[in-house]
Amino acid sequence: ISYVTNTVTAKYRELWLVNFTSPLPVEVLLPPNATLSGVYTSFTSLRVEKERLLLEFPPGAVMLSYALIPPLPPQPPRPAEGGAPAPVQPESPPSQQPAAPEQPPSQITPPEGGVQYLWLVAAIAAAALAVVVAALLRLRRRVPAELSETDLEILRALQSAGGGMFQSELGAKLNLPATTLWRRLRRLQELGYIIVERRSGKNYVRLA
What we know:
The structure is a single chain. By secondary structure, the chain is an alpha+beta fold. The protein folds into 2 domains: 1-71 and 112-146, Immunoglobulin-like; 148-208, Winged helix-like DNA-binding domain superfamily/Winged helix DNA-binding domain (Arc Repressor Mutant, subunit A), CATH 1.10.10.10. Helices cover 31% and strands 27% of the residues. The protein has helices at 112-141, 149-160, 167-174, 178-191; strands at residues 9-12, 15-22, 26-29, 34-39, 45-49, 52-57, 60-68, 164-166, 194-199, 202-207. A 4-stranded antiparallel beta sheet has the order 1-2-7-4. The chain has a 3-stranded antiparallel beta sheet with strand order 3-6-5, covered by helices on one side. It has a 3-stranded antiparallel beta sheet with strand order 8-10-9. The longest helix has 30 residues, at 112-141. The chain starts with 8 loop residues before the first strand and ends with a strand.
């Protein structure tokens, strides 16, 4: 079954986050011009189909992030060299002088914006290749998932709350002991997923 929904995706700054749970194996096909940023749960396959990344996940939690490469903006037409066209001269009778040698065509220089865009695309492509290689190595070595189910529940709860909530509210929503919740929050903060702030004398947890 293929479907499109806005309940499994969220945007944080320049990254799109895909986060859902499936009771069956599932395939995630990224949109065109998408660059994979991170995969936070175990997956079984990673390949390219029609210039789009396709990831396969086993039953369970699915969480990944990606960025979209902006399209190249259209360049305005360049004015002809020499300014205004030269006035038309009246025709003269043909002479016997030899024809002038043909001039080689002028070299076309790409606009600066196009060069910068090509460098940007090359840099993003290199970063995407590094992410894919790291993901394949992780799959080959069968390293366990970086985030536990409790970690994913915390991130989902923060996402459903609009990006942040107080620690006491989070513990009540997930029915977690205070010590267990604090230990998971410290780990998620060390990994860069969340930020814990002091507001009104209480801990406020928000997505990074």
